[in-house]
Amino acid sequence: MIQAAAKRGASLLGLGSLSCQLQQWRGIRVKVRNNNLDHALLIMQRKMQSSGIERMIKIEQTTHIKKSEKRVLAKKTLQCKLRSQDLARKLKAILVQKVRGL
């Protein structure tokens, strides 16, 4: 599964076999302890999410997207980004107030 993810990542970047070898070198390794495969798969999924491999796999589109759909997706992405920035700004203000003791 990891090799498939690496190959997809390489094909996304268009770098060929060299990138595939690099991805394998940087790949995700998970130890299975006490034959607990479910727990190991859960850990692997978390690592894939945090490293961004899962996002790269999801982003890969094999079908054509209409311009109207692209506009809708771009609008949703922008709204999500603005919401995230606004939340970060509010959290930063709260932390500054707590540090200053106000």
TrEMBL record:
- State the superkingdom: Eukaryota
InterPro entries (UniProt xref): Ribosomal_bS21
One GO BP annotation is: translation
- GO molecular function (one): structural constituent of ribosome
Which keywords, in A-to-Z order, does the entry hold?
Answer: Ribonucleoprotein, Ribosomal protein
Q: Name one Pfam family in it.
A: Ribosomal_S21
Task: Name the family the entry cites.
Answer: Belongs to the bacterial ribosomal protein bS21 family.
Recorded protein name is Ribosomal protein S21
Upper taxonomic lineage? Eukaryota, Viridiplantae, Streptophyta, Embryophyta, Tracheophyta
